[in-house]
Amino acid sequence: MAVQQELKKYDRIILGIDPGTNVMGYGVLGVVGRRPQLIVMGVLKLSRFETHYMRLHRIHERVLGLCEQYLPDELAIEAPFFGKNVQSMLKLGRAQGVAMAAALSRDIPIAEYPPLSIKQAVTGNGAASKEQVANMVKRLLSIPDEKMPDLLDATDALAAALAHFYESQKPAVARGPQSWKQFLAAHPERVVPRKNK
Question: What dotted CATH number matches 2-190?
Answer without folding.
Answer: 3.30.420.10
